[in-house]
């Protein structure tokens, strides 16, 4: 069996997979979202580690498994989220700054004014945006008392969540990341496969903070014996979206998947080729395996399932996210209502750090069901924005879209998605493909699986074919585009 640790934006999960890639057991714990100011999002890095450890321990205990049943551990994680800790005490010096956090937007603008946009695009494959780790790390060094001096003395370590978990699991013995996570820092050169000295100098980041970057499937170290009962090799690591691409079996260039979690992330495998987007996508490292690095094009949508959580937690119009499907069926259409959930600005393909969320088209007859429906629909429209960019950049007309992630369980959403894209949608048996991908990467490295064995494992759960007439699709999407335009540049700083 393989144990996958899936550290997401809103919860930590531990999933045990058997040799056939089936889920044997799952444990999950949500943790605190911290919003210290408008546009800021933080996590307590200790709580991330504690919840992740607790679910790993619980999944073994509740299922009468022992460490010797587990051949390897794979780690997959929310990407970009930035932790800095003291390497002697193991204590974070500040909360983890989450990928959705916009506090460095102004600093990004200054970097743009210095003419860095093209450098970042060519060498990091990224858009110069507050999304990525580099400016978050810079902020911590500049703003946390004593941080700069401690960094210069060599007392601090930086990591994205993969690195933080690996360091804790190995009792501080291993400070490493994998190619896929490193490519999201805006500090890692995806052409030379090295930390980029020019970016480090520009952001004033001492190189001694940085983890070693290693392949996504190899033995990094072992968990310390007291954590899970005995030492277990940790042999797979990848950012959650790249892990999902792997878990969806998109191992060949031209294959793509879309994950509906907190955000929505569409990735297309482009093989060993770096394709620089002209349509607002990112170029990222998919994984490094067997001495070879492969790349992907990515469309990152910041708010997707999080908008449904917002309906549940802030608007209090839902008791649970799955209820959104039932409530949506209470109205026959969106009643002209459009929700643009630009709560953290807009990601691909717009890249507007100053956009904010809005509801359009309200009339006296609008009710909560329309708003719930319009919120679900917004996930599908955002996906179309990204798919159009993907098709332009790759020159590939996608015949079907493979989907996964929590919100892909929503049948209304998946049908609407196929209709709005005018492309059939395929949902696999296992929608926990992020964890599955991490398990595959870990299992490959310890010889639990061969590449051949995992190649054709993908199984269809349900296909959603296009049913909507063209005129209706065009009208809905045109209104969406109009709504998006009106949210842009809302915050003036
Ligand atoms: N049936 C559903 N319909 C709509 N949204 C859902 C449904 N189930 C879960 N979600 C949303 O999906 C997200 C959880 O998906 P998950 O893949 O676990 O995300 P993450 O890994 O980002 O934490 C939540 O934001 C939740 O609101
Ligand atoms: O937590 P998730 O699964 O929504 O993923 C977050 C992404 O990795 C952010 O880039």
From TrEMBL:
A GO term, aspect molecular function: ATP binding
Regulation (activators, inhibitors): Inhibited by fructose 1,6-bisphosphate (FBP).
Enzyme Commission number, as recorded: 2.7.1.30
Biological processes, Gene Ontology terms: glycerol catabolic process; glycerol-3-phosphate metabolic process
Superkingdom of this protein's organism: Bacteria
Binding site for ADP: 9, 13, 262, 305, 406, 410
Pfam families in the cross-refs: FGGY_C (PF02782), FGGY_N (PF00370)
Positions bound to sn-glycerol 3-phosphate: 9, 79-80, 131, 240
Recorded metabolic or biological pathway in which this protein acts: Polyol metabolism; glycerol degradation via glycerol kinase pathway; sn-glycerol 3-phosphate from glycerol: step 1/1
Coiled coil: none
Residue ranges of domain Carbohydrate kinase FGGY N-terminal in the record: 1-247
Residues reported in the UniProt entry to bind ATP: 9-11, 262, 305, 309, 406
Purpose: Key enzyme in the regulation of glycerol uptake and metabolism. Catalyzes the phosphorylation of glycerol to yield sn-glycerol 3-phosphate.
Listed name of the protein: Glycerol kinase
Organism of origin: Aureispira anguillae
Taxonomic classification: Bacteria, Pseudomonadati, Bacteroidota, Saprospiria, Saprospirales
Gene behind the chain: glpK
